[in-house]
Amino acid sequence: MTPDMLYALRDPAGIPSHPIVFLVLGVLTLALHLAAVHVMLGAGALTLRGAFSASPHWRRLAAAMLSTSKIAVSVAIVLGVAPLLFVQVVYDPFWYTSNVLSAWWVIGFIVILIGGYIAMYMFYWKNHDIEQDGGRGGIWMVASLALLLLVGFIVHSLTNQMLFPEQWMAWYAPNEVVDPSGRSLHYWHLPRFGFFISLSAPVTGAWLYAYRRYLQGSANPDAAYLAWLQPLAHRLMVIGGVVSVLLGALWMATLPDKMAWFATSPWVFLALACLLATVALPRLLGKRIDDGLWGYAVFGVGAVALIVVGAVREVLRFVTLRGVHGYDALDYRINMDWYSTGLFFSTFGVLGAVTMGYLLTVAWQAGQTQGTYTPSPALNRLGNAAIGLLVLWTVAYFAVGFFVWAR
Ligand code: HEM
């Protein structure tokens, strides 16, 4: 596949803002997506471990983690759409070819995802009070985790197939016989997949530190439960962190030849340093982890480490496609559209901040209150502002659409 052929697959209309905007947003949203995926998988695994345990602490944790995992699935899906939009804008020749080559799996992805989510709800439906009654129907939760992992595996494969234009013809027409079925996934790299999935353990450990800190602030903290949670969070971070680093090293050691330069590049050591700093943070904080916001800081620092991992992953893709295949994502033709760029950032920065600010404050304050929670008048005003902004956004969206259509 020559550079000219790759460039010919680009959208001739160009893109509505500078490519760097899409690359940066792609990295940031991928990190958020991965954080949600990690919490979803880690909390799901803790649910399975705890629901059938005789220990009341494990069962209590399982009940909390089931709710967490359920919500994290929806957050992972919503935050998966964002990097999907950005990757298909700047890397459209690669992303769409990879998708078409495995079209059956791209559609199957949605069905499998729905199946995985329903299976989790089946488990939830069978277990209204895990803390009291213990778990039932664990097979549903096992099926859910397996299907969700399969979804991740499909995305992993699609995102890697795009890096091998030199293979596309052989995949499309093996032995020179065209196979248009799209039924095969053609490329995967298990150490890479294992690295991204195993990060679930340290990320969930960091999440447990935040959960523990949140419970400490509640009206009647259960000291025994909190003391039990700390070593569990610690073990998940340390053992999970070591496993992730080992899988990361295996990924680097088995990189295809054209990417081998990456294994010893400073980028990899930067990512490694960030991951190790996150894992070491609870130890460095010592008893301070129970003060102020420090208990939450571990997850915050972990999120920054994920952004760095996402950025380093992007360096691998950008440099491979430019250096080996002559495709420069930064020279995409720009057809500047200030309206859509402005709309995007104001939706994100204003509507997103107000709505999320309201929802998170309500959730936070409700969890820290004993008895019935009543939001303050100022918070109610923020809620009304969020609804007003949503209405305004919807009106503006359709008004511009009709204006363009009528012209
Ligand atoms: C719910 C189960 C899911 C899991 C376990 C999962 C896991 C992952 C993993 C491990 C990666 C990194 C793959 C790699 O670099 O090798 C990834 C990337 C990605 N995921 Fe997900 N994912 C899930 C759902 C979704 C959904 C529902 C969407 C979209 C709606 C999505 C969109 C993406 C995109 C677009 C990327 C790659 C972005 C890029 O290459 O820049 N994922 N996901």
- End-to-end C-alpha gap: 41 Å
Catalogue the ligands.
protoporphyrin IX containing FE
Helix content: over 70%
Query: Main beta sheet, described?
Result: none
Mean pLDDT: 96
**Domain module count:** 2
Low-confidence sequence ranges: none
- What structural class is derived from the secondary structure elements? mainly alpha
What is the tally of helical segments?
Answer: 15
Q: Determine the strand fraction and express it as a percent band.
A: under 5%
Report the principal-axis shape.
globular
Number of strands: 0
Computed Rg: 23 Å
H-E string: HHHHHHHHHHHHHHH
Question: Can you characterise this structure?
Answer:
The model has no long low-confidence stretch (mean pLDDT 96). Helix content is 76%, strand content 0%. The protein is an all-alpha fold and 407 residues long. It folds into two domains: 3-336, no CATH class; 337-407. It has helices at residues 3-8, 19-51, 56-90, 92-101, 103-126, 130-133, 138-161, 165-172, 190-198, 200-216, 223-253, 266-285, 294-323, 338-367, 377-406. Protoporphyrin IX containing FE (HEM) binds at residues 26, 30, 33, 37, 76-77, 80-81, 83-84, 87, 113, 148-149, 151-152, 155-156, 159-160, 192-193, 196-197, 313. Protoporphyrin IX containing FE is lined by residues 26, 30, 33, 37, 76-77, 80-81, 83-84, 87, 113, 148-149, 151-152, 155-156, 159-160, 192-193, 196-197, 313.
Note the main attributes of this structure.
407 residues, 15 helices, globular, mainly alpha, binds protoporphyrin IX containing FE
